[in-house]
Amino acid sequence: MPLLQDPVRLITLVLSVVMLGIVGYGFMSGDVVVWWNNLWAEPWNFVTLADLYISFWLMAIVMFAFSENKLASLPWIIAINVIGSPVFGLWLLLNLPRLRKRMG
Length: 104
Known about the structure:
globular, mainly alpha, 104 residues
């Protein structure tokens, strides 16, 4: 089914682009050193970061489990831990038709 006729894939694409923009904004406007130095001062910063990376690892498990070529999934898993959710969005966008067939 073409992307524009598949609402789930279209929403995935829009959310991935939005998240990529947010990540880009953070890198361009923020100061990572200041953020890192203040990270441990507030417990909720730690909670948020832990939640984020546990989510990345859970996504990585899905990527690995559903990958036909386990070795080919490793660059995706590394990228999701470096770049974040936009990588999983792209992977999902590319693999959703195959996943639907496999699960249905």
